[in-house]
C-alpha cells in the first residue's frame, strides 16, 4: 500500500475531505466527534501530509530569508544565531544568503528567496541603495532591515543608540578621574560615525571638558596602529590620559603601537574600544569596551518580522532600541 492520502483519512473517518482539512489546519470549527474521528484515522493510517503541497495551498512556507553581507563577519554570526534560534520557537526556519557587499548579489538573493516562497526577509547590510529598497518593497514580502550605518524613512528597525552608548563610555572615563579624553573615530559622514561623535561631545560639554577629536579614514587594527604617533603627540601636548577609539580592532592596534613605543596601558594611558569583539577579552591587557547584544538584536528582529507576517504588529512610530553595556577590563583605570 502506498502513502495514505487525505482521501483515505476522510474515508476511514467517514467525513468529507474538507472536514479533514479543517481539522489539520484548525481553520474552521469542527464538532468534537468529527475531530476525534479524523485524529483517530490520521493516527491509524500514520498519515503525514505533503508539507510542500500544503504550503502552496495555504501560502505558508514557515520560511524566512536572511541576507547578510558576509557570514564570516563576527557580529553577523551572532545576529544569525538570534534569528535562527528564536525563529524555531515560532516554527520558522531560515534560508541564508550572502551578498558580500555587492548590490547585484543582494538583488539576486532577494529574487532567489522570493521564488522559495519565504514569508519574510531580514536584510543585514551596511549599505542599501534606493534602487534595492524599491525592489524590496515591490516583492510585497514583509521585511526587516538591519543597517547600522544608515537610516531610512518609514522603516522601523532594531538598532543601538550609538550616541547614548558612546556617551556612557566617555562618562565612565571621566568618572575614573580622567580630565582629558581623546576620541579617535572614522571620518566618513554616516549615521554611526556622527552618532558616536555626538555622544563624545555631549559627555565632554556636560562636564565642561575640552574636546579632543582625531578623525581617520580606516577602521582596522592597522589603522589604529598607524595613527599611534599622531595620537600620542596630541596626548602629550594636551595632558590626555585616556583614548577611546571607534571600535575594538582600532583600539587593539593602538595598544600595539603603545607597547612598541614604551607606553604602558593602562598605567600611562587608558585605552577603550567599542563592540566587545571576541579578541577584546583575549588580548592583553583585556580591552575595556562597549558590549553590543547582537544576539538580542537578531532575536527581536525575527519576532518583529513574524508579527508583521501574521499582521499582529501594532502601529509603531519608533525603532526598537537595544541597550548596551560598558565592560570594564584591564586597559582602563
From TrEMBL:
<feature type="domain" description="HTH lacI-type">
    <location>
        <begin position="4"/>
        <end position="58"/>
    </location>
</feature>
<keyword id="KW-0804">Transcription</keyword>
<dbReference type="Pfam" id="PF00356">
    <property type="entry name" value="LacI"/>
</dbReference>
<dbReference type="Pfam" id="PF13377">
    <property type="entry name" value="Peripla_BP_3"/>
</dbReference>
<dbReference type="InterPro" id="IPR010982">
    <property type="entry name" value="Lambda_DNA-bd_dom_sf"/>
</dbReference>
<keyword id="KW-0238">DNA-binding</keyword>
<dbReference type="InterPro" id="IPR000843">
    <property type="entry name" value="HTH_LacI"/>
</dbReference>
<dbReference type="InterPro" id="IPR028082">
    <property type="entry name" value="Peripla_BP_I"/>
</dbReference>
<keyword id="KW-0805">Transcription regulation</keyword>
<protein>
    <submittedName>
        <fullName>LacI family DNA-binding transcriptional regulator</fullName>
    </submittedName>
</protein>
<dbReference type="InterPro" id="IPR046335">
    <property type="entry name" value="LacI/GalR-like_sensor"/>
</dbReference>
<dbReference type="GO" id="GO:0003677">
    <property type="term" value="F:DNA binding"/>
</dbReference>
Amino acid at each position: 500500500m502506498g502513502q495514505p492520502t487525505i482521501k483515505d483519512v476522510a474515508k476511514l473517518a467517514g467525513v468529507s475531505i474538507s472536514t479533514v482539512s479543517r481539522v489539520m489546519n484548525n481553520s474552521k470549527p469542527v464538532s468534537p466527534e468529527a475531530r476525534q474521528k479524523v485524529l483517530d484515522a490520521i493516527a491509524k493510517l500514520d498519515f503525514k501530509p505533503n508539507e510542500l503541497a500544503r504550503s502552496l495551498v495555504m501560502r505558508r512556507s514557515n520560511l524566512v530569508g536572511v541576507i547578510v553581507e558576509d557570514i564570516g563577519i563576527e557580529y553577523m554570526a551572532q545576529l544569525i544565531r538570534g534569528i535562527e534560534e528564536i525563529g524555531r520557537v515560532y516554527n520558522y526556519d531560515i534560508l541564508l544568503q550572502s551578498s558580500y557587499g555587492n548590490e547585484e548579489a543582494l538583488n539576486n538573493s532577494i529574487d532567489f528567496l522570493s521564488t522559495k516562497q519565504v514569508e519574510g526577509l531580514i536584510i543585514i547590510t551596511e549599505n542599501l541603495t534606493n534602487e534595492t529598497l524599491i525592489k524590496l518593497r515591490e516583492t510585497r514580502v514583509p521585511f526587516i532591515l538591519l543597517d547600522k550605518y544608515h537610516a531610512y524613512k518609514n522603516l522601523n528597525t532594531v538598532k543601538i543608540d550609538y550616541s547614548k552608548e558612546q556617551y556612557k563610555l566617555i562618562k565612565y572615563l571621566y568618572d575614573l578621574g580622567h580630565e582629558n579624553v581623546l576620541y579617535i573615530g572614522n571620518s566618513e559622514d554616516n549615521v554611526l560615525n556622527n552618532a558616536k561623535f555626538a555622544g563624545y561631545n555631549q559627555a565632554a560639554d556636560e562636564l565642561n571638558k575640552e574636546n579632543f577629536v582625531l578623525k581617520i579614514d580606516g577602521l582596522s587594527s592597522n589603522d589604529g596602529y598607524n595613527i599611534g604617533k599622531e595620537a600620542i603627540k596630541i596626548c602629550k601636548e594636551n595632558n590626555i590620559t585616556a583614548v577611546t577609539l571607534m571600535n575594538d580592532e582600532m583600539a587593539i592596534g593602538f595598544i600595539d603601537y603603545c607597547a612598541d613605543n614604551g607606553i604602558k596601558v593602562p598605567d600611562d594611558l587608558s585605552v577603550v574600544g567599542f563592540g566587545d569583539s571576541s579578541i577584546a577579552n583575549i588580548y592583553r591587557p583585556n580591552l575595556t569596551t562597549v558590549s553590543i547584544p547582537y544576539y538580542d538584536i537578531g532575536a527581536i528582529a525575527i519576532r518583529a518580522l513574524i508579527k508583521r507576517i501574521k499582521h499582529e504588529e501594532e502601529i509603531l512610530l519608533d525603532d526598537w532600541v537595544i541597550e548596551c553595556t560598558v565592560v570594564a577590563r584591564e586597559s582602563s583605570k
